[in-house]
Amino acid sequence: MAKEVQMSIKMESELRDQFMVVAANRHRPAAQIIRDLMRLYIADSETPNALTAETIRKCRLGEDVFSATSAEDLFKQLGI
Questions:
Q1: Which residues, including other chains, have CB under 8 Å from residue 47's CB and lie 6 or more apart?
Q2: Are residues 58 and 50 in contact, defined by beta-carbon separation less than 8 angstroms?
Q3: Which of 55, 73, 75, 54 shows the shortest CA–CA distance to 65?
Q4: 3-state secondary structure of 51
């Protein structure tokens, strides 16, 4: 088992209070939520999410690639 260590985090008291209320309402220890968020943050930084990976794959195949003369033209093509 990995060695457990303590960590201190500085934050606004209002943010802490709101977080603690949400954690209590969900019956989850605040420390467990923080650990889960840290694991998600690490995972997100290591690998692209499914949408990003699919976009990269399509780009390499030349699929869904747009050419535009301006931002307005691109937005129009994308229906935005």
A1: 53
A2: no
A3: 55
A4: helix
* Nearest to 9, CA basis, from 42, 31, 29: 31
Q: And the tokens for 54?
A: 């699919």
Length of the chain: 80
- Rounded to whole angstroms, how far apart are CA atoms 18 and 10? 15
Separation of alpha carbons 31 and 29, rounded Å: 5
| Distance (Å, whole) CA 2 – CA 42 | 17
In the chain, the amino acid numbered 61 is L
Per-residue pLDDT of the chain (80 residues; tens, 9 = 90+): 788 899 999 999 999 999 999 999 999 999 999 999 999 998 878 777 788 888 889 999 989 887 889 999 988 988 88
Residues 6 or more apart whose CB falls under 8 angstroms from that of 48 comprise 56
